[in-house]
Every structure is written in C-alpha cells, then in structure tokens.
Design a protein that fits this description.
alpha+beta; 10 helices; seven-stranded mixed beta sheet
C-alpha cells in the first residue's frame, strides 16, 4: 500500500472538500479529524470515508454551510440541531459548547441531531480531556440503516453504537476507551473488503444467519454481531443503552426511516474534575494507574500490556514519522472525485 505524509494528506482533503462545497472552516475540521483517525490507526474512520461524504453531498444528504441551531438551552444543557451539516463540524461545535458549560458550572450534557457521520467518536471527548475534563460520548445512526443483530437474532435492528470515555492525565498519550458496542465497527469490514482480506469469525453473520469470515457477505444481506461473542448479551445490552441515549433521548427515535439519510445522533457529557478533586492530583493518579496497568506481567502469547489508548498514541508517533498507509482502492476513489472537481491534480504525486 502507498504511504503519504499526514500534512500533505490533510491539505489535499481540505482542498477536495472545499471543491465540493465545504467552507474553509468545515473542510479544515473534516481533514483534521479524518486524517487523525488514520494517524492513530483507525483507518476505517479515516480518509476512506471521504468519497462517501462527497456522494452524500451530491445526493443532498449533507448540506455544506448548514446553520447550527442551539435549542432548549440551559446553563448546563442544550440540544443541538446540525440541520444536516457535516458531523465533524457540528460535533466539534457541540463539544466546545459542552466544555465551556462544564468550565462554568462543572457539568454539561448536550444532545446532537441532524448531522452527518461524525467519524471517530474519540475525537471529541479527547478535546475535553485536554482541557482537564472527563468526557463521555455516545453515538447512533438514528433512524438510518441498521447493521447489528440483537443477541440471538439474525435481523439488523441496531447501529454499531459506539461509546467513548476520556480522562485527563500527565501521560504522553491520553487514557481513553473508544469502542463500538458491536463486535466490530462497520468501517473495519469495509476496510478489509477494500484490502482483499478475510475477517475473523465472530464479526458478522451472512444473510442466512451463519457466521462467516468473508467481508463481502456483510453487504449481501449479512449483519454484525453484538460485542462479546458467546457473552454477546452484554454488548447487546450496552448497545441498547447507547441507542436509547443517542436515538431516543435525542429525539431521533429507533428503527429505520424510509429516507435512509445517515444521521449520527449523539449524547455528550462533560465533567469538570475540579468539582470533585484537585485536577493536578487527579491527573497524576490517572497517570500512575495507567502505568501500573501497563506494567502488568505479560501472559503467554502477548508482547506487553498497554493502558487504554496507548496503542493509538504509539501508532500516531510512528505514522507521523513514517507516513500513513492508504489502500489503492481508497486512493483511486479519492482521485476520481478530485479529477471530476476543479482542483488541480490528485493524490498520486504525494504517494511514496
């Protein structure tokens, strides 16, 4: 697979999104968040998504320049309506508002509706952690197409329903958890298909309800299993909770709407650590805790133990220095839209 420098990729994606109607501010955030996903190793939520966003712009599912509305606002809460704007831009705005409210009143909770795909959910709680806050974020596709079966079923009823929690610390890389409540994020299946690779058994079912390792079965009537394998009732329960927060509490509802528009409903909760503990003491204790976890004696078959979020930090340092891998099919798809736009050139000159 070809490699590309993260700065070159970020600049190119920003120019490409502007060519398809995004403002400079919107394009900057889209490129920053999507390339960051590639940098930390979450390629399924990186620039592989850019062609999908452009397609949704062309179909009217994403509205560049949409005005963000703040509804039902109190000192500690708000309901954000993105009016079908870019999810990166809307959720970045919402998290900044939540941080501001928590700085003033110690805690904030915000719901977000009518926005497009938000990308890697961790992008937003990590913003709060940098400000000395603890943040929780859940996301759901609203009444858009579903991908995940309830435990014991074979019919798609749930989204992949991710949740992220991030903590401030003195670590070089933030301690956080960012996970789908399904066995895998849908983007990882699409990534495997793009790279021509099989997937592990336990990720998906085929259209007949049988486990399979062929990623193509997912798009041919298959479905994703809930997190937990034979203990999948736990992931199923957590997924239902996330959907209640992100679908029902937000007002998006559940099930699938006929319009089929992707709509990431979100709940963001931000807590000011200073309301509970001295911030610097807390940060050091989190640091000590994380390092204690990573010093655990290693079991057979493993190289070492990582604290939650450490692998992403290590991956980012490597990719900043050595470049980001981008599969040939993604390069081709991005180049196709670039060549159909009024920008000059494509990704090829930046690849090595």
């Amino acid at each position: 697979m070809p490699l590309i420098n993260h700065n070159d990729l970020r600049t190119f994606i920003s120019q490409l999104m502007q060519a398809y109607g995004a403002s400079e501010d919107e394009a900057t955030l889209i490129s920053e968040h999507s390339v960051e996903a590639n940098l930390v190793g979450h390629d399924s939520h990186g620039v592989i998504q850019i062609p999908t966003y452009i397609d949704r712009i062309q179909r009217g599912h994403i509205k560049p320049g949409a005005e963000i509305e703040i509804n039902n606002e109190s000192r500690t809460t708000a309901r954000i309506n993105g009016n079908w704007g870019f999810g990166y831009y809307v959720s970045d705005f919402a998290m900044k508002l939540a941080i501001k409210k928590a700085q003033e009143d110690n805690i904030a909770a915000i719901t977000v509706v009518q926005q497009s795909h938000v990308g890697r959910v961790a992008s937003y709680p990590l913003m709060a952690a940098k400000e000395g806050m603890i943040a929780i974020m859940t996301a759901d596709s609203g009444r858009g197409p579903k991908m995940v079966v309830p435990f014991g079923g074979k019919e798609r009823k749930l989204g992949t329903n991710p949740i992220c929690i991030a903590f401030p610390s003195n670590l070089d890389g933030t301690m956080f958890v960012d996970m789908a409540t399904s066995s895998v994020a849908a983007g990882k299946i699409n990534l495997a298909r793009s790279r021509g690779k099989d997937i592990p058994f336990g990720w998906i079912l085929d259209k007949d309800g049988n486990q399979t390792n062929d990623p193509n079965d997912f798009s041919q009537g298959g479905a994703i299993l809930p997190l937990g394998a034979d203990q999948g009732h736990k992931g199923y329960g957590l997924s239902a909770a996330v959907e209640t927060f992100s679908g029902i509490l937000t007002g998006l509802g559940f099930g699938v709407s006929k319009d089929g528009i992707h709509n990431d409903g979100c709940l963001m909760i931000v807590m000011n650590v200073e309301a509970f503990r001295d911030l610097e003491v807390f940060k050091q204790e989190v640091t000590d805790f994380a390092l204690d976890l990573s010093s655990t004696e290693v079991a057979s078959g493993y190289d070492r133990v990582y604290y939650p979020g450490e692998i992403e930090h290590i991956t980012k340092q490597d990719r900043i220095q050595n470049g980001i891998y981008v599969e040939d099919t993604t390069v081709a798809n991005i180049n196709k839209f670039a060549e159909e736009s009024d920008i000059k050139g494509n990704l090829d000159p930046y690849l090595h």
